[in-house]
Amino acid sequence: MINNFEEYLTLENIFLFSNWGVVPFWLLLLFSPNGVVTRFLVHSIIIPLILASAYVFTAYQIYLNDNFFDGFGLYLGIENLYAIFSDENFLLIFWLHFLSISLFVGSWIARDSARYSIPKFFTAISLISTYFTGPLGIFIYWSIRIFFAKKISLNE
């Protein structure tokens, strides 16, 4: 049974499940940011643990292929970054990293916007922007937050 499960855990399947698997949680953040289900699934450690398990499994696959230390070359130049991204294992690791961080930030935006009573329309714009563009969505939210919080805060 374990062998069948391992055969099912291909890079393509991990990518598809993680990529499409986060969409319901983003929808929960959009339509029910403070609901019980959202608090249990999205604002907790459950989803990061699931994504972390995929991350660890992919890192283990990199280790088995004897190219684990190739990833450190990304700091040496953009050519090395390109070379690392040509490896599907490393590409998936970075994609899982992006999905985890952006969902974490989206969860923070939903909680923080409730704290400052930011209208759902503006929160939704920020969440959608964060889902698709990451840092640009954070900047959009921070710009909106300044107006509703009536202060500029560069740290929290």
Tell me about this structure.
The protein is mainly α. The protein has one domain (2-111). The chain contains 9 helices and no strands. It has helices spanning 2-8, 11-21, 23-31, 36-41, 46-64, 78-85, 88-115, 120-133, 135-149. Helix 8 (120-133) packs antiparallel against helix 9 (135-149). The longest helix is centred in the middle third of the chain and has 28 residues, at 88-115. The radius of gyration is 18 Å and the shape is globular.
Proportion in β-strands: under 5%
Q: Gyration radius, to the nearest Å?
A: 18 Å
The ordered string of helix (H) and strand (E) elements is: HHHHHHHHH
Number of helices: 9
Number of strands: 0
The main sheet comes to: none
Helical fraction equals over 70%
Mean pLDDT: 87
Low-pLDDT segments: none
Rough outline? globular
What is the structure about, briefly put?
The chain is built from 9 helices and no strands.
Secondary structure elements and their pairing?
Blueprint: H1 2-8, H2 11-21, H3 23-31, H4 36-41, H5 46-64, H6 78-85, H7 88-115, H8 120-133, H9 135-149
Name the descriptors.
156 residues; 0% strand; mainly alpha; 75% helix; 9 helices
